[in-house]
Amino acid sequence: MTTCRICNKPLTDPKSIAVEMGPDCAEKLQRFVSSGAVDANEMARLEESGNPLIERQMRLTRRAIADGRFDRARLFLSVAMQLQTSYSPVAVGA
Ligand SMILES: [Zn+2]
Hints:
By secondary structure, the protein is mainly α. It has one domain. Helices cover 63% and strands 0% of the residues. The mean pLDDT is 89. Zinc ion binds at residues 4, 6-7, 9, 21-22, 25, 66.
């Protein structure tokens, strides 16, 4: 079963399943991104970092977004970005 990648609730609507997000969370994420907190691409890159510490921060970030706590989400995200900077090797071809 596909669950919302922001709040983890099961998804039933095909459109929501396609984007792995419920409409409420999609709207919140959109608001969070457009508040200038993070570039959507940067966020996707952090989600796929493969670093468990960063993944943990991103889980916290998503939960905060689901709760509408954008201030907390920004804080968690900034830690994830710092981890990314300090731990990841230089990307090949970047
Ligand atoms: Zn959701």
